[in-house]
Design brief:
single chain, 191 residues, mainly beta, Lipocalin, eight-stranded antiparallel beta barrel, 2 helices, disordered N terminus
Length: 191
């Protein structure tokens, strides 16, 4: 039996080969989308923000051409780490974390399944998974080719309870967060 030793140099060379082959993208590890989540409560409106990533596999078979992706898109996955959310104050962030259970459900994930394009507007249809519960979600997205990549922008409304998220109730029930939220996103994806 022959013993094989993997050196740091060999590991680095293998990783470089994977990167060049397109099997791994470093962009997918760097946040490239900004999210704003807002809603209402019995006392006031609220807004929290987070950064997430969008990994795109360009190429034939996924759908029509999109600005910046002449051969269309095979797959697209948006991932937002729950712990990336911050709110205007620590108490609000704490209530959000209690509701979202980041230790049990660390990510919110949207997977594109199909899309239709008209000019610089696309209608994306896919599956949103929050707290392990997947629901179909269709949303409009503005897609524009940019010098550094493809600029994306969109928004949608969700009912938190459809994903098993219990809206926070604090101050002995005096403050109740409404179940409807608005999600806005924008960012730059490099093809």
């Amino acid at each position: 039996m022959r013993k094989t030793t993997v050196t740091t140099e060999r590991l680095t060379t293998a990783l470089a080969a994977l990167l060049l082959a397109g099997a791994v993208t470093l962009d997918a590890q760097q946040p490239n989308l900004d999210f704003t989540v807002s809603g209402t409560s019995t006392i006031r409106g609220w807004t929290c923000t987070a950064k997430g990533t969008m990994a795109v596999t360009p190429g034939p078979g996924g759908g029509p051409a999109v600005p910046g992706f002449a051969k269309g898109v095979q797959t697209a996955t948006v991932t937002v780490p729950v712990k990336a959310f911050t709110c205007p104050n620590a108490e609000m962030t704490e209530h959000l974390m209690q509701a979202m259970k980041p230790d049990q459900f660390p990510e919110i994930v949207y997977r594109l399944e199909k899309y239709e394009v008209t000019g610089d507007r696309a209608q994306a249809t896919g599956t949103m998974t929050i707290q392990g519960k997947a629901q179909p979600l269709s949303l409009p997205v503005v897609v524009k080719a940019s010098g550094a990549g493809v600029a994306l922008e969109g928004n949608t409304r969700l009912d938190m309870t459809a994903y098993g998220v219990e809206p926070p109730v604090v101050m002995l029930g005096m403050l109740k967060v409404g179940p409807q939220i608005r999600i806005e996103f924008k960012g730059l994806v490099t093809p």
